[in-house]
């Protein structure tokens, strides 16, 4: 099938209409504007009442979110930051989950004006990884110490659902022997960031063992969306994208990840859009988003807009938006990426983030070796703000009291979707996952840590072990003996034991 014929058959109108409520979208521009305007001067007591609601791990209403978005008083903002961090502690404790991005293809039929991969960027050299290249990339990512990755694809018939499903299988097949030779390390969870798909295609990804399906709406403002995504492209269809996660849920993928590309439009509007999205998923499926991302637009080769948008978000606004998202959707994971500068990333973790990446390379084929990296230096989508190694970032976090987690047990034990939402809301998941965080951190310290990271990590892990030993949280009496047994076996070289 040629490219144009393929493009014409991607969108299925019935898979949009199905999710409209009385023919309407869950994004109502007028309603969002009215909420933001009516809450323009927040009463401090109202703000404090809303913070109490967040602390009881309840999704805030759009109106309550608008109140928080309009706070500018520094003392109140500090109270919000403290509450945001407390929410994070209650739900996720002091864990930070790590992943690596794996860019598989920069072939793309769309023309998003902010992206280096857009089809009308003549400077972009195109490449799609072969299965062998995906294999080599995965080996290099495992050798950094990673256990989960997010594979990223442009939208193109050559990187269709079959290609994506095959790449998931290839990634899962890669195994690397541990330094002790006792076991092997591998990627235990493959998440996907790709274009919206039809239910039939999403089922192929589900069968291949996808972890989370991630699609960013880019902007929730329909008018601005139309300006940035030409109408005669697939991505030009706002609604096809808006209901991507609804279709994923119907396909059986219940860990879905939403996001907005901050810098395309008014940041307060985008936060309102994300919260409306969480509400609609809860309304229609009983499950909110597994994670929310808030990438800030970075300079992209050949894109004028990426550096000159009137809506670029400065650091102060960025901190506020992360804090409000933490408070508004208390159970969700929040992802801050290596797009951000090192010092800002370190700070933003304290606003309630739960996941991040490191050692990231976003060129196509950029992990596997110097030669491929040099050849593909011009195949990047945008510029990264923080190029530090996983080891450096883990050490910094350990010094700050955060334990790195490579845990992927939840999804392999069926703790996804509504089951995990329940545990998160009750604060159980945070405590339970701490056990798996310690087990996977032990693996990392043994296999990959530098001397300095080992030192910082050992201090932290001893503290954690002490805390676990003293906890009275778990009612199942067999749980802690099993945990300590696993811990000793992992320290002796066994791998991939989880609770
Ligand atoms: N092609 C798929 C799509 O558009 O959904 C997935 C891959 S695309 C490379 C992944 C994400 O990169 C986009 O959703 C967009 O938010 C983000 N992105 C694009 N250009 C960017 C830029 N200049 N800076 C930061 N992020 C960008
Ligand atoms: Fe293609 Fe995605 Fe980039 Fe748009 S954002 S040009 S769809 S890769």
- Total helical elements: 23
Named once each, the bound ligands are: S-adenosylmethionine, iron/sulfur cluster
Gyration radius, rounded: 22 Å
| Main β sheet profile | 8 strands, parallel, barrel
For the record, what is the CATH homologous superfamily label of the largest domain? Aldolase class I
Largest beta sheet: strand ordering:
1-2-5-6-7-8-9-10
Q: Given the helix and strand composition, which structural class is it?
A: alpha/beta
Q: Runs with pLDDT <50, length 5+?
A: none
CATH architecture term of the largest domain: Alpha-Beta Barrel
- What is the CATH class of the largest domain? Alpha Beta
Could you describe the 3D structure shown?
The protein has 499 residues and is α/β, with parallel strands linked by helices. The protein folds into three domains: 3-25 and 94-422, Aldolase class I (TIM Barrel, Alpha-Beta Barrel); 29-84, no CATH class; 425-491. Helix content is 49%, strand content 10%. The chain has 23 helices and eleven strands. The chain has helices spanning 3-8, 14-17, 29-38, 44-55, 62-69, 74-92, 131-144, 161-173, 199-208, 222-228, 238-242, 244-250, 267-285, 305-308, 315-328, 342-349, 370-375, 390-399, 409-412, 417-426, 428-447, 451-470, 479-491, and strands at residues 95-105, 148-153, 175-177, 184-186, 189-193, 210-214, 256-259, 291-293, 333-336, 355-357, 403-405. It has an eight-stranded parallel β-barrel, surrounded by seven helices. Strands 3-4 form a two-stranded antiparallel sheet. Helix 4 packs parallel to helix 6 (74-92), helix 6 (74-92) crosses helix 21 and helix 8 (161-173) runs parallel beside helix 9 (199-208). The chain is globular and about 60 Å long. Bound molecules: S-adenosylmethionine and iron/sulfur cluster.
